[in-house]
Design a protein that fits this description.
By secondary structure, this protein is of the alpha+beta class. It has two domains: about 35 residues; about 200 residues, no CATH class. About 20% of the residues lie in helices and about 45% in strands. It is built from three helices and eleven strands. Strands 1, 2, 3, 4, 5, 6, 7, 8, 9, 10 and 11 form an eleven-stranded antiparallel beta sheet that branches. A hairpin with a 4-residue loop joins strand 3 and strand 4. The longest helix has about 35 residues.
Length: about 250
């Protein structure tokens, strides 16, 4: 009888030690994840021309959630955006379907010198931290993307992310921007923009997950006075999703 009690007590101690070890490990992993977790957005918009554009008004899509909000929008609203020339006037507009950045400038670009084009490229950048974890697996529904999102459909993902810890999902869609300016017939304008949302942490080694959203406008030639259709691309679910639940 004493032997049975000793065996039962030994098993109980082993189980207790295992339970404490597992609980300690789980708590330690959860603490490392919470303490190291950061969530950030980076927005980049590039405007290029090979000549002079005069009396310029652009309405550029800004990444926002379905309610028109995002840390990027908040920073632009606070004038925390780098790369804008001093003579540009920047104003945010919410249309209900999209959030747009109005750019007003008397002139963008420079005239050809000795018959040679003098390209001008202006890059606007916003780096913004998020107070909550970014839903990088479903950004259209729950994160900041360029809107409006029209004719959304799945597309093949680039092979470069075939080694991702998860299986990325990609989409294409149509959206719009506005460009009003006068220019010589040979002048060209191209606009591209991207937003990346990333969650990063360190549990024994660095890890992250992310999504990317890009839009581009086919190169415009000469003057333009109106809305332009843009192609949107989203790649979601890139990286690791083996994390403790918050």
């Amino acid at each position: 009888m004493d032997k049975i009690i000793k065996i039962a007590l030994g098993l109980f101690i082993v189980i207790l030690v295992l339970f404490v070890a597992i609980a300690t490990y789980t708590t330690s992993v959860d603490t490392m994840y919470r303490n190291s977790l950061t969530s950030n957005y980076q927005y980049i918009c590039t405007i290029s021309t090979n000549d002079v554009l005069s009396n310029v008004t652009l309405f550029l899509p800004v990444p926002a959630d379905s309610h028109g909000d995002s840390p990027v929008v908040a920073q632009i609203s606070s004038h925390e955006i780098s790369g804008a020339p001093a003579d540009w006037n920047l104003t945010l507009y919410g249309t209900g379907k999209a959030t747009l950045l109005q750019v007003s400038a008397p002139m963008i670009g420079q005239r050809p010198a000795n018959g040679v084009a003098q390209p001008t490229t202006i890059t606007l950048i916003v780096n913004a931290s998020s107070s909550s974890v970014i839903d990088t697996s479903a950004p259209v529904e729950n994160a900041a993307v360029f809107r409006p999102v029209q004719n959304l459909h799945t597309a093949a993902c680039p092979s470069m992310n075939a080694t991702s810890a998860s299986t990325p999902v990609c989409y294409q869609y149509l959206t719009s921007m506005y460009a009003d300016y006068t220019a010589n017939p040979a002048a060209s304008l191209s606009v591209s923009a991207s937003v990346t949302g990333i969650n990063s942490w360190n549990i024994f080694s660095p890890a992250s997950n992310m999504y990317q959203n890009n839009i581009s406008v086919l190169t415009l030639h000469g003057s333009n006075h109106g809305w332009v259709t843009s192609l949107g691309w989203i790649e979601s679910g890139i990286g690791s999703y083996n994390v403790p639940s918050l």
